[in-house]
From TrEMBL:
This is F-box domain-containing protein. Residues 15-67 form the F-box domain. It comes from the Eukaryota. It holds the Pfam family F-box. Coiled coil: none annotated.
Length: 474
């Protein structure tokens, strides 16, 4: 064997066997692939693209029709005048913009948060707003004689949005102007008539496809069913600390941030939910499960803190006064911020002996250390202290002029509680005071400060309490 022949054999690259299979076999294989895989396969090589994107090819139509029927069963049959491959391809919104791929969803990645691509059926494209703007033109932007424009554009598809000038696909305009310039005068009328008939057909197809895209009752029903299934499954496995009904647990699950984001609070995320695949649904369920556990731990912490707060409150005035550091700085004590929790089990009560002999004295020492610091925070029993911990908009403030003395000795006293701005308004309007001095004229209700700061009346901290079904309002 000659050296030249050996070198020739080494340099020649073996061709893939699949490129040599008959078209009929290839078509039979592709019938079992979902549409998104057909798109990927069409990008492998020119031959595959020719087989899968070939216009007016029965085999190509059959591949896409079978794939659509098997994997997109809710999608209606395309109307006459648009190919199966174009119709199905444009419906693959999870591929994002067909020009820049904005909004393309990773089938094994994070949850999609938006769906920026939109289908413009009149132009038969699926693209984002930016790519659309780059590829369309209005009559005001075309530098041509008006009479020429009237003829050339009369048969072109256009889009009208928000009563603005009609927009045309830029390439269509360029082709129409070039074709119009090459026509004889006697052929213009027939050319225009033919284009108007084509435009009418395109408008009918676009109208049908728009209705298919907008009216997706099956898909909407499927998403709602999937949401209910996810929440129901979670309600069966998450801890139920207060023996609530499954309905009550499900409502708590629906309050998780991710659930609310994808169902109420964020329109972009709500529209992105239609891009979820099975992986995304599993991830969605895991995230909600994690958020539920975080809420549970937070609720357990707040419930324990509230027990401590009530214990200190019960010792006023028998053991402590409102001026004692443990009362004034309780919320700032390290042991109060992170109390010992029994495996986050809030159903187990505190041991009174432990509280009286160990934990309360420890809190008293920590509060005294805080009080001895030069830059200590303002006491929570004062107006500035309540504001410091974020209670300005809560009804925890009292008018001192309406309460005798600086301390509320009788805990059952009936007085009006105000927000900070409202108690000042009360002082101005009711007492006629212009120069308000907070320290002398405004006080706080210690028990109410504790309730509001620890969110005792919120649904989050009621997490461990059995509730009646009518508590929930949908």
């Amino acid at each position: 064997m000659s050296i030249t022949h050996c070198q020739h054999n080494k340099s020649s690259k073996p061709k893939s066997i699949i490129l040599n299979i008959p078209v009929e076999v290839y078509i039979d294989i592709c019938k079992y692939l979902p549409p998104i895989d057909l798109v990927t396969l069409s990008l492998v090589c020119k031959k595959f693209r020719q087989w899968l994107i070939a216009p007016s090819n029965f085999g190509t139509e059959q591949i896409w029709r079978t794939s659509r029927t098997n994997f997109l069963s809710s999608l209606r049959t395309p109307p006459p005048g648009i190919s199966e491959q174009c119709y199905t391809f444009l419906h693959l919104i999870e591929l994002g913009c067909q020009f820049c791929e904005a909004g393309k969803v990773d089938p094994r990645g994070a949850l999609p948060t938006e769906a920026p691509a939109k289908i413009y059926w009149i132009f038969r494209v699926r693209c984002c707003r930016k790519c659309l703007t780059e590829r369309v033109v209005t009559t005001n932007q075309i530098q041509e004689d008006q009479s020429v424009l009237d003829f050339a554009l009369s048969g072109l598809p256009f889009l009208v949005q928000n009563n603005r000038p009609c927009i045309y696909w830029k390439k269509d305009v360029e082709d129409a102007l070039r074709e119009f310039a090459s026509l004889d005068t006697k052929d213009i009328f027939n050319w225009q008539t033919e284009n108007l008939l084509k435009l009418r057909q395109k408008n009918l197809i676009a109208s049908y496809c728009n209705n298919v895209t907008r009216n997706e009752p099956w898909k909407k029903w499927h998403r709602k069913t999937k949401l209910r299934t996810v929440i129901h499954q979670l309600s069966m496995i998450v801890p139920n600390d207060a023996n609530r009904t499954h309905l009550q647990v499900e409502v708590e699950l629906r309050r998780c941030p991710t659930y609310k984001k994808y169902t109420m609070s964020c329109p972009n995320a709500s529209s992105a939910m239609k891009l979820f695949n099975e992986h995304h649904w599993n991830q969605f369920q895991e995230i909600i499960h994690h958020e539920y556990n975080e809420k549970r731990e937070y609720a357990a912490l707040r419930a324990r803190q509230y027990d401590l707060f009530l214990k200190v409150y019960s010792l006023i005035p028998s053991k402590y006064s409102m001026n004692d550091p443990i009362v004034q700085y309780l919320c700032h004590c390290p042991s109060f911020k992170k109390p010992p929790l029994n495996s986050w089990d809030n159903c187990l009560p505190w041991d009174n002996n432990f509280l009286d002999t160990k934990f309360i004295p420890q809190l008293a020492r920590e509060a005294q250390e805080i009080a001895n610091k030069r830059n200590h925070p303002p006491p929570i029993t004062t107006t500035s202290g309540a504001q410091k911990i974020g209670l300005s908009s809560r009804c925890v403030f009292l008018c001192k002029l309406c309460v005798k003395g600086d301390e509320i000795v009788d805990k059952n006293i009936c007085t009006d509680l105000f927000e900070y701005k409202n108690v000042r308004m009360h002082l101005r309007n009711f007492h006629g005071i212009k120069n308000i001095i907070d320290k002398k004229m405004i006080m706080t209700d210690f028990l109410e400060v504790g309730k509001q700061y620890l969110k005792r009346d919120s649904r989050v901290v009621c997490f461990f309490l059995p509730l009646y079904d009518d508590f929930y309002v949908y």
